[in-house]
């Protein structure tokens, strides 16, 4: 079992709060854009959901790639 050391352990809670705020803000932005473009169109809603899911998958794959590059102590 490895332990992590943080350069600024006093800011861990701040970083977690900022990450949660960014997640909520991103969801609100996507909902706003969806509301602008998707008046009463089911195919447009489906395509918007597909694009959002594709971006989420790409972000997860990128995070996994970065995690593999980290050397294990």
From TrEMBL:
Identify the residues that the record assigns to the Major facilitator superfamily (MFS) profile domain, covering every copy: 1-71
**Transmembrane feature ranges:** 12-38, 44-65
Q: Which InterPro entries match?
A: MFS_dom, MFS_trans_sf
Keyword line: Membrane, Transmembrane, Transmembrane helix
| Superkingdom to which the source organism belongs | Bacteria
Stated name of the protein: Major facilitator superfamily (MFS) profile domain-containing protein
Q: Which organism is it from?
A: Mesorhizobium salmacidum
Taxonomic lineage of this organism? Bacteria, Pseudomonadati, Pseudomonadota, Alphaproteobacteria, Hyphomicrobiales
């Amino acid at each position: 079992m490895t332990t992590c050391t943080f350069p600024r352990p006093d800011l861990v809670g701040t970083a977690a709060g900022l990450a949660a705020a960014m997640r909520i803000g991103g969801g609100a932005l996507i909902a706003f854009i969806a509301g602008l473009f998707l008046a009463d169109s089911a195919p447009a809603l489906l395509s918007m959901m597909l694009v959002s899911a594709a971006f989420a998958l790409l972000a997860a794959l990128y995070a996994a790639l970065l995690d593999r590059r980290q050397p294990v102590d």
